Amino acid sequence: MLNCLRLEGEVGAFAEAARVMWGWRVAAKEVAAAEVSNGMHKWRERMKKDAPRRRFKVALARMEQAPAHPEEDDFSQFLSQENAAPAAQPEVTAEALLRVVAESSQRQEQLLGKVCSLLVSLDEKLGRIASSQERLEDSLHRAADAPAGAARAPVSGQVQQRGALVAPPGKPGYSAAGAQQGPSPEEQRLQQERLAAERLRMEEENRRRAEEMNRRREEEERRKREEEERRRQEEERRREEERLRKEELGKKTSGLMSGLLSSDSGGGGGGLFGDEAPKRSSKGGLFDD
């Protein structure tokens, strides 16, 4: 099963690499088209500038390769070669660059096709491996559940193979030289031991998984209880703060009202509804009767 998971991971990585390669191919096409549209003039100018230097190098190479003749002048030969018409240089055109880009894209498509075929074959192999493992597990379970005496049918009850001699009625059958014999007691004992070991291993694995699941469940429940307790404490603290705030506000309001009422009843200048009307003086004035 681990091999299947590892192979599935490799297949996924291979598919991701194929998708990335496909994106690179599109980017390469765009870059090549941009180079074709923007770089032709620069390429031609560079070819024109480098033409005299290339002609000089070609002439110098020919002078070095030519056999020495005392009657000929090397300088005159160089001048004649310089005055001669230069050889036509192959011009790089947009069609050539597009052809190179098309060939590159074709090669990339072929590579992608091979990658896809490889992925398909890997998928088929993984399917076969998974089915074979399932069959093997089923056979192991059946062999473990079956009794020890019924592990293998007796040889006498086997189906007669094709090509064997058939005895006439009333006579015992012929013993074939190449007939398959039943397993020996030692082989049966080893097979039973292997089955018992496999059964113990599976039981231990199931027990370990159950313990792991129980531990995770307990941790999850404990975490939930802690979260609920923390939320409950936060809610209680908030309610207590709200209650204290209301009590403080009530105390301030009652103190203010009591102060206002006491000022009104004491005959002072200030009260709840302002000062009273001023009283007339009892003293007589100059013109009072």
Brief characterization of the structure:
The protein is an all-alpha fold.
How would you describe what is shown here?
It contains five helices and no strands. It folds into two domains: 142 residues; 69 residues. The chain is flat and about 135 Å long. It is mainly α and 289 residues long. About 2% of the residues have low confidence.
Secondary structure topology:
Blueprint: H1 2-38, H2 40-65, H3 74-83, H4 94-145, H5 185-265
Helix pairs in contact: 1-4, 2-3, 4-5
Outline the low-pLDDT stretches. Answer: 153-159
Average pLDDT works out at 73
How much of the sequence lies in strands comes to under 5%
Oligomeric composition of the shown chains = single chain
Order of helices and strands: HHHHH
> What's the β-strand tally?
0
Provide key terms for this protein.
single chain, 289 residues, 5 helices
